[in-house]
Write a structure and sequence with these properties.
seven-stranded mixed sheet; mainly beta; single chain; 119 residues; four-stranded antiparallel sheet
Length: 119
């Protein structure tokens, strides 16, 4: 059974960097069939795709967030990480890590972690 678990701080100050880690169990993140993605849901809004990393380590980002986003991985730990720079209050959201098929999040998601951007 594939399981994903997000971890990271729940409160980040404006202009700082948000960093979240997703730990995957039950499947290697280097398996050829799947990518691994980050999505978020701001309060009162729909899901927003942030980006994903492929088995080979290539990354793809949402254009509005691309200049501030970096997704990396630690294959020895079976983890992948989101970094979002220069955060603003509008980055407040529940952040999810997911498995992705052809870049589209499929049915394996973490439980989500609330991140609030506030001074």
């Amino acid at each position: 059974q594939v399981q994903l678990q997000e971890s990271g701080p729940g409160l980040v100050k404006p202009s700082q960097t948000l960093s979240l880690t997703c730990t995957v169990s039950g499947e290697s993140i280097t398996t050829n069939s799947y990518s691994w993605s980050w999505v978020r849901r701001p309060p009162g809004k729909g899901l927003e795709w942030i980006g994903h990393i492929t088995p080979s380590g290539s990354t793809y980002y949402s254009p509005p967030l691309k200049s501030r986003t970096s997704i990396s991985r630690a294959t020895s730990k079976n983890q992948f990480t989101l970094q979002l720079d220069s955060v603003i209050p509008e980055d407040t959201a529940v952040y999810y890590c997911t498995r992705a098929t052809f870049g589209v999040p499929d049915h394996f998601w973490g439980q989500g972690t609330q991140v609030t951007v506030s001074s």
